[in-house]
Write a structure and sequence with these properties.
The structure is a single chain. This protein has a single domain, classed as Rossmann fold. The chain is built from nine helices and seven strands; from the N terminus they run E-H-E-H-E-H-E-H-E-H-E-H-H-E-H-H. It has a seven-stranded parallel β-sheet, sandwiched between helices. Bound molecules: 1,4-dihydronicotinamide adenine dinucleotide and D-galactaro-1,5-lactone. 1,4-dihydronicotinamide adenine dinucleotide binds next to helix 1, helix 4 and strand 5.
Length: about 300
């Protein structure tokens, strides 16, 4: 059966906020988790107003019957649950995972930081999540919930970018993390493989390029994933048949693409966007990528050079 109830971790973040408006039209009920307060999006406010109208019409409506305790905003739609919790809180994760069909795992530190902070949030935190899925998760039909996990291009960030005529970077290119952050994404991929092999938990690890409303520099013309394509890819990853652990690159069908989208397409992903519509303006403002600039030479861009990791 297609997954319906999804736990979205990192729901207060940039990507989580975008997905909260883009995924419900695919038919998902989202359960939201973040350590930060989660402010409602415009789409959620509109949905809540519709729900409130229905409750008024149905006078015995069991208000908030579907919310869980840690934080529940009044007026939220009946199918949306909000959990304010840190990935360090194993009990909260078990409660959050209980009864979901799948997890879209976006929570974590999303840029470079100290090793200790990355260790706690991205490495220990992701382990805690998988343990919760293993212990608590049973979806309809008895299978464990599918995990779709945000990996990153920074797991392979020190890979030299293709230049004129070079082949696209394959998905099985050797890992070359550009930061402790990228290293934590390598860990997340290996952790997913372990839980697939030992416990039969399917994961799709998406090595996301840059998923923002618009690309903001010339490198992003190659790695950009439009939010709408992001939702298409996450939907494909959530609904594909048995995946084991599958790693894919996540981006739009960019004219200047650096990597192979075939593994994502094999899941059923059909990107519709291309960053090329932004190219003329960005290149006029910033110039073409400079082959002599080390920050332009690798997939990870400035993550390879800045911020410096040592000393930190
Ligand atoms: P973000 O930094 O805006 O959001 C991350 C969210 O995770 C935040 O709301 C934060 O409060 C939450 N979080 C952090 N540590 C937590 C913890 N210990 N417990 C609970 N919640 C915690 O990042 P963004 O851009 O939304 O990215 C989402 C995910 O996608 C991240 O895992 C990031 O590494 C990954 N990614 C994002 C890309 C992008 O272009 N936006 C590119 C590649 C990967
Ligand atoms: C990432 O992994 C980051 O989470 C995001 O903030 C962007 O920096 C992105 O990669 C990128 O490479 O542009």
């Amino acid at each position: 059966t297609a997954p319906r109830t999804i736990l979205l971790t990192g729901a207060a973040g940039g990507l989580g906020t975008l997905m909260r408006d883009l995924l419900p039209p695919y038919g998902y009920d989202l359960r939201l988790l973040d350590m930060r307060p989660i402010k409602r999006t415009a789409g959620e406010r509109a949905a809540d107003e519709r729900t409130a109208d229905e409750r008024t019409a149905d006078a015995d409506g069991a208000a908030d019957a579907n919310t869980v305790g840690r934080e529940a905003e009044t007026g939220q739609a009946g199918t949306r649950r909000v959990i304010t919790a840190d990935l360090a809180d194993r009990d909260a994760l078990r409660e959050a995972v209980h009864g979901v069909d799948a997890v879209l795992h976006l929570a974590g530190i999303s840029v470079e930081s100290t090793f200790d902070k990355i260790l706690a949030a991205n490495i220990q935190g992701t382990h805690n999540l998988y343990e919760a899925v293993r212990e608590e998760g049973v979806r309809t039909g008895g299978a464990p919930p599918r995990v779709v996990s945000a990996s990153s291009n920074h797991a392979v960030g020190f890979t030299p970018r293709p230049r004129g005529g070079d082949p696209l970077i394959p998905i099985d290119t050797p890992r070359r993390p550009d930061t402790f952050y990228g290293l934590s994404k390598c860990f997340g991929e290996d952790l997913a493989q372990l839980y697939a092999d030992r416990h039969g938990i399917d994961t799709v690890s998406v090595r996301i390029g840059s998923c923002f409303p618009e690309p903001s520099n010339v490198r992003m013309l190659s790695v950009w994933m439009s939010p709408a394509d992001g939702a298409r890819l996450f939907h494909a990853a959530l609904t594909a048949g048995t995946t084991g652990h599958t790693v894919v690159y996540g981006s739009s069908a960019n004219t200047r693409l650096w990597w192979d989208l075939a593994p994502a397409r094999a899941l059923g992903y059909e990107p519709r966007d291309d960053s090329e519509v932004f190219a003329a303006r960005l290149i006029a403002e910033q110039g073409e990528l400079d082959p002599d600039n080390p920050a332009h030479a690798h997939l990870g861009g400035a993550f390879c050079t800045d911020p410096p990791m040592w000393p930190y």
